[in-house]
Specification:
The protein is of the alpha+beta class. Helix content is 23%, strand content 27%. The protein has seven helices and 17 strands. The structure holds succinic acid. Succinic acid (SIN) binds next to strand 7 and strand 16.
């Protein structure tokens, strides 16, 4: 059953919805949280405006959807006093922002986190938008022939290029492979699960062999009809599903102007430490 008080307004055909008529600082009914979750699964990313949450209220909201975690990438520091909240800023003196390439969060981990939330605490007068692209729409738009080619493949992911770009001085995480085509555990829709920031090659293929097809898929995923673009105001809260979307933080503002509080939630089925399974494997298990 869904909560009919909430108004859900699509941002674009394939990606994003704004949810109105809810004050996230207040505890909500199970039905309301379920409606929010369904909207996230359906639209890939959801947005709320005008929220005035304390850090504690923000953590309490996040806990309704999974276990908050602060991945230690060396790129995003925790908010002092709160291990669950990370602070996304462009530090004075820095040219590069965090998240300024198309990516999905933590795909280089064995069990990538499901959901990321961003709460805008301070925004620039203009700029600082985030773009999202739907990888379910991107998958659906591929030809049947290419879908069949991709179905059995696995792709290798590495955070080496991002660590170097952000000059963390850290050694990259060990490379990891995941299926190229996932089936969303809740919607059942197929997802193209490669991304420009982290995917380096197909498993069993050289980088040189992989590059033409990966570059094609990266260009394909950047077709504007799969996008939505969100303009943050102080008090905006965005919540995206990392399995089915890419995102890109636009770097068109000055250092120190934008402060975002981020919570990453791990959720089914990967909070059990399971790596993503391919769409084909998942379908076979469901049919068994
Ligand atoms: C991120 O990539 O997690 C940050 C996105 C943003 O700051 O808009």
């Amino acid at each position: 059953m869904s909560d009919s008080r909430l108004k859900i307004r699509r941002v674009t055909t394939h990606c994003g919805a704004e949810i109105l008529n809810v004050d996230l600082a207040q505890p909500q009914s199970a039905q309301t949280y379920q409606t929010i979750r369904q909207a996230l699964v359906e639209h890939g990313v959801i947005f709320f405006r005008g929220q005035t949450l304390s850090a504690e209220q923000y953590i309490a909201f996040a806990r309704q959807f999974g276990r908050p975690t602060v991945p230690d990438s060396g790129i995003i520091p925790p908010l002092p006093g709160y291990t669950e909240i990370a602070q996304v800023t462009k530090e004075p003196g820095r040219q590069r922002n965090i998240g300024g390439t198309w990516h999905t969060d933590q795909v280089y981990r064995v069990a990538p986190s499901w959901g990321t939330m961003l709460l805008a605490r301070q925004v620039p007068e203009h700029g600082g938008d985030t773009l999202f692209s739907s990888m379910t729409a991107a998958y659906d738009a591929l030809s049947d022939g290419l879908k069949r080619t991709l179905e059995p493949l696995r792709a290798v992911h590495s955070n080496a290029a991002v660590q170097a770009r952000m000059q963390t001085g850290r050694a990259p995480a060990p490379e990891i492979s995941h299926p190229v085509v996932l089936r969303h555990p809740e919607s059942g829709r197929r997802i193209l699960y490669v991304n420009p920031a982290y995917t380096v090659r197909f498993e069993g293929w050289t980088e040189e062999e992989s590059r033409p097809l990966l570059e094609y898929l990266f260009r394909h995923g950047q077709r504007p009809e799969f996008f939505c673009r969100f303009n943050w105001e102080a008090g905006s809260l965005g919540f995206w599903d990392n399995y089915q979307t890419w995102h890109f933080a636009v770097n068109d503002y000055d250092a120190g102007e934008r402060i975002m509080h981020r919570i990453v939630v791990e959720s089914l089925p990967f909070d059990r430490g399971e790596a993503p399974v391919s769409a084909a494997q998942q379908a076979a298990t469901a049919d068994a």
